[in-house]
Structure formats: structure tokens, C-alpha cells
């Protein structure tokens, strides 16, 4: 019985409590996991955003060229000077 009492008292002194350390470690682990998950989902949408941007830019360029070509007869009818830099 004396051996059990000695080993029990040597493992954790009465004055020290490890509750603060455990709470801090649990908070740190949960915060790290949450930050990792939010970062992953935040960056996972980047590829779709880039693809949408490229698609809209190409569509805008095609529309711009079409409007320029459609404006040629209007310029000719109104006898306006057509700039070569448009084409």
C-alpha cells in the first residue's frame, strides 16, 4: 500500500493543475483544423473563378470585334473617317 501512495503522490503534486494546458492545446488544435479547412475551401474556388474570367474576357473581345465590324456600314453611310487602328 505504501508503494501505491508514493507513486500516486510523485506523479502529480497537489499544487499543479494541467487543466489550463489541456484547454489551450485543445483550442489550438481545433483552431488549426478550422483554419486549414477554411483556407482549403477558400482556395478551391480559385480555378473556377479564373475559368469564368477567361471565358467572359473572350466573350467580351468577340462582341467588341463584332460591333466594330457592324459599325463599318454605318461609318460609310455617314461618311465618317474609319480609323485603321480599330481593325
Describe this structure in words.
The chain has 87 residues and is mainly alpha-helical. The protein has one domain. The protein is built from 3 helices and no strands. The protein is rod-shaped, with a radius of gyration of 36 Å.
Distance between the first and last residues' Cα: 99 Å
Quickly count the helices. Answer: 3
Question: Which word captures the global form?
Answer: rod-shaped
Largest sheet data: none
Total number of distinct structural domains: 1
Oligomer: single chain
Low-confidence stretches: none
Q: What is the succession of H and E elements?
A: HHH
**Approximately what portion of the residues adopt beta-strand conformation?**
under 5%
Topology record:
Layout lengths: L1 H10 L7 H26 L1 H32 L10
Short overview:
With 87 residues, the chain is mostly helical. The protein has helices spanning 2-11, 19-44, 46-77.
Keywords:
mainly alpha; rod-shaped; 87 residues
Amino acid at each position: 500500500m505504501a508503494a501505491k501512495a508514493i507513486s500516486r503522490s510523485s506523479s502529480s503534486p497537489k499544487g499543479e493543475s494541467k487543466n489550463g494546458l489541456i484547454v489551450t492545446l485543445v483550442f489550438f488544435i481545433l483552431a488549426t483544423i478550422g483554419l486549414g479547412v477554411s483556407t482549403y475551401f477558400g482556395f478551391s474556388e480559385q480555378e473556377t473563378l479564373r475559368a469564368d474570367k477567361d471565358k467572359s474576357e473572350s466573350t467580351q473581345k468577340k462582341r467588341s470585334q463584332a460591333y466594330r465590324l457592324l459599325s463599318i456600314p454605318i461609318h460609310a453611310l455617314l461618311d465618317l473617317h474609319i480609323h485603321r487602328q480599330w481593325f
